[in-house]
Amino acid sequence: MMKTEAYSSLSAATRAVLEQYVEEEFGQVPFVQEREWARPDWVLLAYEGDAIATFCHVVLREVSIDGQTYKVAGINNVITPKAYRGKGYASQVLRQAAPFIFSQLGCAYGLLLCADALLPFYSRLGWYSLSNCTLYYHQPTGEQLYDSNTMLLLPPGQQPIRPQHIHLNGLPW
Ligand SMILES: CC(C)(COP(=O)(O)OP(=O)(O)OC[C@H]1O[C@@H](n2cnc3c(N)ncnc32)[C@H](O)[C@@H]1OP(=O)(O)O)[C@@H](O)C(=O)NCCC(=O)NCCS
After folding, report:
1. What's a single GO MF annotation on this record (predicted)?
2. Whose CA is nearest to atom 3 of ligand 1?
3. Given ligand 1 and candidates 85, 91, 114, which is best to mutate, with the most ligand atoms within 8 Å of its CB?
4. What is the reported pLDDT for 109?
5. Dihedral (C-alpha) 6, 99, 92, 3: value to the nearest 10 degrees?
6. 2-167: CATH number
7. 44 CA distance to ligand 1 centroid (A)?
């Protein structure tokens, strides 16, 4: 079963479970520890019985892309707890994310930041990576340049864009 929930309407118990998974997966990663991150607006979940089999966060943001502002859905914290991995749950949640962000939220693009290892996984799900594109985001200390992969998801039928400058206009995700 799949569910889409506003992050603010999650029960305290569910939020605690999600925060625990995020901490387990990314709590020890220096890049993550050393930065401040955006709060999610939405969470997409897949369940196996009553248990959370995968979830991902969605951050809504007005992002600058080559000087124009677009409503963007930022995807992050795609996590499948270990017992549920390799069964297609994350792929299922990410496929479900597309109609949600484009039809329901009315976003122009999906945008995620990821390490090299995950490029093939997201590519299989229709995301494409930008080359020669600088991406900046806010931190309490000032602007920071992101130096790994930026991937975009387009609404069905739209031709790929190849921007050179992106500013997230806020904390990263
Ligand atoms: C990445 C992750 C979400 C995949 O979840 P999943 O439900 O097992 O995904 P699916 O079953 O839909 O697809 C599995 C595929 O993901 C890819 N994959 C999973 N982990 C990967 C990794 N560390 N590096 C590269 N590819 C990976 C593989 O292609 C895998 O296919 P395989 O099972 O044939 O090897 C899960 O492994 C996870 O939670 N990892 C830790 C958190 C993380 O890195 N999240 C993504 C970055 S935000």
Report:
1. acyltransferase activity, transferring groups other than amino-acyl groups
2. 79
3. 85
4. 98
5. 30
6. 3.40.630.30
7. 16
* C-alpha to C-alpha distances, 110 to 34, 72, 83, 99, 103, nearest whole angstrom: 25, 6, 28, 11, 12
Q: Can you give the pLDDT at residue 46?
A: 98
Coil, helix or strand at residue 93: helix
> What pLDDT was estimated at residue 153?
98
Q: Which residues line ligand 1 (CB under 6 A)?
A: 25, 54, 76-80, 85-91, 114, 117-118, 121
**Token output for 24:** 């387990």
pLDDT of residue 68: 98
> Residue 150: what pLDDT?
98
List the chain residues with pLDDT less than 50: none
Per-residue confidence (pLDDT) for residue 118, from 0 to 100: 97
Q: Hey, where are the domains in the chain?
A: 2-167
